[in-house]
Amino acid sequence: GQQLNQSPQSMFIQEGEDVSMNCTSSSIFNTWLWYKQDPGEGPVLLIALYKAGELTSNGRLTAQFGITRKDSFLNISASIPSDVGIYFCAGSGGSYIPTFGRGTSLIVHP
Amino acid sequence: NAGVTQTPKFRVLKTGQSMTLLCAQDMNHEYMYWYRQDPGMGLRLIHYSVGEGTTAKGEVPDGYNVSRLKKQNFLLGLESAAPSQTSVYFCASSPEGVGFTEQFFGPGTRLTVL
Questions:
Q1: Which of B17, B52, B95, B106 is positioned for an S-S bond with B6, CB 3.0–4.6 A?
Q2: Residue B59 CB partners (closer than 8 Å, separation 6+)
Q3: Tell me: the pLDDT tens digits for B8-52?
Q4: What angle do CA A44, A23, A37 make, to 5 degrees?
């Protein structure tokens, strides 16, 4: 089946710093999604990407669909304490079955 | 709109007991999914449905059954619970589209099997 590697596994940063995380796939994806999960809650969609090379922003968050269609990146600028949580990437090669990364745990120190 | 709701929020079972988890969505979505989340493992797909009356196996279907008798509901059943099924279970739904599209998740059910 499809394999999806998400890195880093965890990040500890100071408030105000920028954050970058990425996901790589062993096969080509047609869709990349980025989710955030707060403690005790379900994941919430942040950004959806549907075209290779696409760069999309949502406030301080920016995500890109890699040109090779095998990777995606999420950047958070000027982090704040409420950015704390687990960030997941998810993708699919065109079927209804998504593959999720194992998540990046983000901790922001005030 | 309530979005995606899950019942119950918490449950403790003994090994061998059975139970059903209920997922309901009020967004008229065609697709529904059941995932389990374990520490460090991300989300793994158990079963999914692309429409009323249809179900299909995901990545980790063993020990689970599902039914989609009504478009808005997706039930996950554990026939004989095992400690390995201790996990947080999430239901999700997504609108009709070509393949995988944005999913909306419920708040989760935390299940412990003793």
A1: B106
A2: A1, A97, B44, B45, B46
A3: 999 999 999 999 999 999 999 999 999 999 987 889 999 999 999
A4: 20
Q: How far apart are CA B99 and CA B30, in angstroms?
A: 12
Contact flag A92-B98 (C-beta cutoff 8 Å): no
How far is residue B27's CA from residue B61's CA, in Å, rounded to a whole number?
26
Asked if A94's CB is within 8 angstroms of B100's CB, the reply is: yes
What Cα–Cα distance (Å) separates residue A62 from each residue in A16, A20, A102, B26, B84? Answer: 16, 10, 20, 30, 38
Q: What pLDDT, in 10s, does the model give residues B43-68?
A: 999 999 999 999 999 989 999 999 99
**Rounded distance, CA A74 to CA A59, Å?**
12
Pair A104, A10: CB distance under 8 Å: yes
B60 touches chain A (CB under 8 A): no
| A8 upstream amide cis, omega within 30 of 0 | yes
Q: Tokens standing for B38?
A: 């374990």
Q: Is the dihedral of CA A40, A83, B43, A44 positive or negative?
A: positive
Q: How far apart are CA B1 and CA B5, in angstroms?
A: 10
State whether B102 and A45 contact (CB < 8 Å): yes
CA distances from B24 to A22, B73, B105 (A): 32, 5, 11
